[in-house]
Prior knowledge:
Largest interface: A-B, 27 and 23 residues
Helix content of chain B: 55-70%
Radius of gyration of chain A: 41 Å
Strand content of chain A: under 5%
Structural class of chain B: mainly alpha
Helix content of chain A: 40-55%
Largest sheet of chain A: none
Order of helices and strands of chain A: HHHHHHHH
Distance between the termini of chain A: 100 Å
Structural class of chain A: mainly alpha
Shape of chain B: flat
Oligomer: heterodimer
Number of helices of chain B: 3
Radius of gyration of chain B: 15 Å
Amino acid sequence: MTPFKGPIPGANHTSDTRNYPWHRPPDIVGFDEGVEYLMKKLAEPESTELTFSLLQMDMPIASVCNVMLRQLVSKGKIGIDLAILLAGPLARYIEIIANDNGIKHEMGVENKNRIAITPTMLKISMGIVDDDDEEPVVEAAPEDDSAGLMAPPGAEEAVTEAATETQDEMLGLMENEEEEQV
Amino acid sequence: MKFEEAVKKSIKKFLDGSVPEETDAQTEGGIYYTPDYFDAMEESLKETSDKE
């Protein structure tokens, strides 16, 4: 398909073609209208039972909202933008009815990656160092004087050049000379 | 941003007392279901349950 043959952005909202529900204009477009719909929906016995059951299974309210809103978007009831806007009122309403019915719940929007503020952290950031907080000074381990087999030669052990005779002996040249002399 | 993250962010903002500003401005008379509305609702439910 060439770029010019494709549909223009938003063409799905003006089309009468029956395709996926979320491709058609949503049924609810107003904020207050959406909140009213959600409150009525939650008042239904099946929805109430399901919501309370999920909360009793330690599911956070944010996740319950996520599931409910996704379902409404997939059915074409609300648009995805409105779904995000409705998340706040829906979560608050669920919290209120859960409190009213004595159901333990967790909102699930707390940032668990947050670094907790501790007195030590504050002291460090303010540059205050207590005597107790000072790190103990670790004495340096004495250097090992004994040179190992693979130890590098030190300054004292400067390589001295062997005498010419010794070198010839090591190379086996001395023997040849002796043989020649014999 | 994923839908789940957007939902969490929206909830957090609403609980902090924020309302969608543009929606509020475009709605005649402003948004009805504000955080204050839900606070009042919670209070009235508490009072009702205390009386019972």
